[in-house]
C-alpha cells in the first residue's frame, strides 16, 4: 500500500478507540462526560462493543489513570507527553478535576487528528471552558492554551517518525520542558511504528530529559494461536504492528524499557493480571452487574494479549512501588 494510505488507516484507529471509550461509558464501566464529543453521532444510540472489549477498555483506562495519577502525585512541576493521543479525553478529565498547578501537558498526533481535536474543543462549550483560550502557532502545526495557575497544554500535529533523526541541532518540540519530571505515555501508539523508530522516539525524550518515566500500553504475544488471529485481523485491515514480534511477552517489554535506559520500577503486566490484582472485588461485582460476561475464556485470551509496561530513570515514583503485582 502507498505509505500515505497506511497513515490514513493508522489514523482511523483513533476513531476505533473513541468508539470503544464511548461504549464503555455508555454501558456504565467508565465515567467520562467528554467521550461523547469525539464520536460523530449518526442519530442512533452509541455503538455497543462486546462485553470483553468494554472490560478491556475499562481495565486499560483505569490502569493508565492510576499510573499517571501516581506520577502526578509528586511535588513540584510535572510534564506529561502523550504520544498518539488522538481524541483521548484524559487531558480534559485531568484539567477539569483540578490540582494541576504547574502541569505541562503535551499531546502529539498526526496533524489531521490534532486539528480535529482543536475543532471539537473550540466548538464545544464544556471543553472550551476547561481548556480556556486557544492559541494557534504561526505555522499552524500546533495549538496551545495557557491555563494560568492550572498549567499549560500543547497539542502538536507531528508525525512521531520525524523525531527519529532528531540530532542535537534539531529544534525541540515547542513548549517541551527538559528540566521537570516528565512522563511519556504511549496508549497504543508506538506499536504502529517500526521497532527502531519506536525506540528512537523514546530515545528522543531520554536524551533530553533527566527525570523521565514512561508508560506503554499495547498488544503482545504474536506467536500463539490467538496472537496469529490478531495479527491476521490487523493485516486484513492493512495495519502492521511491528512491536508484536519484537516484544512478544511482558518480560520482553520489561527488557525493552531497561534497554531504553529505564531502570527504576520497571514492570510489565498483562491486562488480565491487572484486572485480577488491581480491580477491587466491589468494583468487579459492580462491573459484572452491568452486563453478563459469559465469554470467560475469550476474556482470558484477549486480556493476556495486552500489556501495560512502565519504568523510570532519574526519578522515583512512590505510588508505582505500592501497586499490587
Ligand atoms: N492514545 C489514544 C487512545 O488510546 O485512545 C489513541 C490510540 S489510537 C489506537 C493510535 C493513535 O496513534 C492514532 O491517533 C494515530 O494517529 C497515532 N499515531 C500512530 N502513528 C503515529 C505517528 N507516526 N505520529 C503521530 N501519531 C501517530
Question: What features would you describe in this structure?
Answer:
The chain is of the alpha/beta class. It has a single domain (51-321), classed as Rossmann fold. The protein is 43% helix and 17% strand. It has helices at residues 3-26, 51-72, 90-97, 111-122, 125-131, 195-206, 225-236, 243-246, 250-259, 271-278, 281-288, 296-303, 318-321; strands at residues 78-83, 103-109, 134-136, 142-146, 152-157, 182-187, 212-219, 264-270, 306-313. The structure holds S-adenosylmethionine (SAM).
How are the elements arranged and paired?
Layout: H1 3-26, H2 51-72, E1 78-83, H3 90-97, E2 103-109, H4 111-122, H5 125-131, E3 134-136, E4 142-146, E5 152-157, E6 182-187, H6 195-206, E7 212-219, H7 225-236, H8 243-246, H9 250-259, E8 264-270, H10 271-278, H11 281-288, H12 296-303, E9 306-313, H13 318-321
Parallel strand pairs: 1-2, 1-6, 2-5, 6-7
Antiparallel strand pairs: 3-4, 4-5, 7-9, 8-9
Helix pairs in contact: 1-2, 2-10, 10-12
Amino acid at each position: 500500500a502507498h505509505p500515505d494510505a497506511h497513515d490514513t488507516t493508522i489514523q482511523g484507529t483513533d476513531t476505533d478507540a473513541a468508539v470503544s471509550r464511548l461504549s464503555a461509558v455508555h454501558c456504565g464501566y467508565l465515567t467520562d462526560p467528554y467521550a461523547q464529543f469525539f464520536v460523530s453521532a449518526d442519530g442512533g444510540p452509541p455503538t455497543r462493543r462486546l462485553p470483553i472489549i468494554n472490560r478491556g477498555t475499562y481495565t486499560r483506562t483505569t490502569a493508565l489513570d492510576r499510573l499517571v495519577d501516581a506520577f502526578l502525585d509528586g511535588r513540584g512541576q510535572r510534564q506529561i507527553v502523550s504520544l498518539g493521543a488522538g481524541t483521548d479525553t484524559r487531558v480534559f478529565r485531568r484539567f477539569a478535576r483540578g490540582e494541576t498547578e504547574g502541569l505541562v501537558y503535551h499531546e502529539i498526533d498526526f496533524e489531521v487528528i490534532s486539528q480535529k481535536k482543536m475543532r471539537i474543543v473550540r466548538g464545544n462549550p464544556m471543553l472550551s471552558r476547561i481548556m480556556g483560550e486557544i492559541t494557534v502557532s504561526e505555522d499552524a502545526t500546533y495549538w496551545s492554551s495557557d491555563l494560568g495557575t492550572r498549567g499549560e497544554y500543547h497539542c502538536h500535529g507531528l508525525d512521531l517518525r520525524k523525531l527519529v533523526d532528531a540530532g542535537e541541532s534539531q529544534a525541540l518540540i515547542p513548549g517541551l520542558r527538559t528540566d521537570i519530571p516528565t512522563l511519556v505515555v504511549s496508549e497504543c501508539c508506538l506499536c504502529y511504528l517500526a521497532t527502531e523508530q519506536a525506540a528512537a522516539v523514546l530515545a528522543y525524550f531520554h536524551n533530553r530529559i533527566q527525570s523521565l518515566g514512561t508508560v506503554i500500553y499495547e498488544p503482545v504475544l504474536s506467536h500463539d494461536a490467538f496472537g496469529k488471529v490478531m495479527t491476521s485481523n490487523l493485516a486484513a485491515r492493512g495495519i502492521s504492528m511491528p512491536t508484536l514480534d519484537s516484544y512478544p511477552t511482558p518480560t520482553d517489554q520489561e527488557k525493552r524499557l531497561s534497554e531504553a535506559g529505564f531502570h527504576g520500577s520497571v514492570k510489565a503486566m498483562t491486562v488480565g493480571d491487572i484486572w485480577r490484582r488491581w480491580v477491587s472485588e466491589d468494583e468487579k461485582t459492580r462491573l459484572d452487574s452491568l452486563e453478563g460476561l459469559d465469554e470467560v475464556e475469550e476474556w482470558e485470551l484477549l486480556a493476556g494479549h495486552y500489556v501495560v509496561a512502565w519504568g523510570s530513570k532519574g526519578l522515583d515514583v512512590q505510588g508505582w512501588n505500592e501497586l499490587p503485582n
